[in-house]
Design goal:
Rossmann fold; alpha/beta; disordered N terminus; 11 helices
Length: 272
């Protein structure tokens, strides 16, 4: 299973001996009903239609690019870009299996190899939370989008991650630690400002709360037990505190009380 350290190092997927686990992680997230609903909402917000040209930045294993290709049809153009060769290979295999035409490229969002005004719309889903220089990447997305086209970004905001724990102080301590392991834990709330500062028009933000009562899923995707153990190893928590919190979560799950929420924000603007 992927460790807590690995899950936050998306810029180093190809260097990881657990690269396949990154693929599996994305597949698990994509399979969630709430994720599917949000993704299809994003296609509508960005104005995807038959014959359109679209860029999916940070395309991962290609699921979104494939769905966009189905919308754009044979007369359209869809391009997926990711910094990981592992992800691009997986995406190409998925597109071939789905029988759709998608162009996949390994590359950096900081230097997109496309001409100005190449696309009707560009999107980046759950990407900006990991970027070292969001303004540069956003500028590139805007550059390759035609005038009047849309730029869409969707990210979680880990300040909006909530877990019902028996010990409030200990739960807050663990969530704060987990949030700070993300490069940009407030990406969700900050992307609205980024798009406004970049000069986009009609910028709008759509919030969403995703709740889960499935502890097994939260362990796989949220890595709660892993976080407590890492904090113990680093001396941030005592062994007793880590054991107590994990036991509390398991007890809550067994009783049917487990409850957690993550907030996300979809932001879209129009290029002048």
């Amino acid at each position: 299973m992927m460790t807590q350290t690995d899950i936050y190092h998306w810029s180093e997927v190809d260097k990881s001996p657990l690269a396949e686990d990154f693929v599996n992680y994305l597949d698990m997230v994509t399979a969630l009903k709430g994720t599917q609903e949000r993704k299809h909402e994003s296609y509508q917000v960005m104005g995807a239609k038959e014959g359109g040209s679209y860029l999916d930045l940070g395309c991962g294993t290609g699921d979104d690019a494939i769905e966009l290709a189905k919308i754009a049809g044979p007369s359209g153009r869809v391009v997926g870009v990711d910094n990981s060769a592992v992800m691009i290979s997986e995406a190409q295999q998925k597109a071939q299996k789905a029988g759709v035409d998608v162009e996949f490229y390994q590359g950096s969002g900081e230097a997109l190899e496309f001409a100005d005004n190449s696309f009707d719309a560009c999107r980046a889903d759950r990407v900006f939370q990991h970027l070292p220089d969001r303004k540069v990447v956003l500028a590139e997305m805007i550059r390759v989008t035609r005038s009047g086209g849309r730029v869409l970004i969707n990210d979680p905001d880990y300040g909006g991650r909530m877990v019902d724990g028996y010990n409030r102080e200990l739960t807050d301590k663990i969530l704060t630690f987990m949030n700070n392991r993300v490069r940009n834990p407030w990406a969700g709330r900050q992307n609205y400002r980024l798009l406004k500062e970049a000069g986009l028009l009609e910028v709008a933000s759509s919030p969403r709360l995703s709740a889960s009562t499935n502890f097994e899923r939260a362990k796989r995707l949220g890595r709660f037990p892993d976080a407590a153990r890492i904090m113990q190893e680093q001396g941030v928590l005592t062994e007793e505190e880590a054991n107590t919190w994990i036991a509390d979560m398991e007890r809550s799950a067994e009783a049917g009380y487990f409850f957690c929420v993550v907030a996300s924000f979809m932001v879209c603007g129009v290029k002048p």
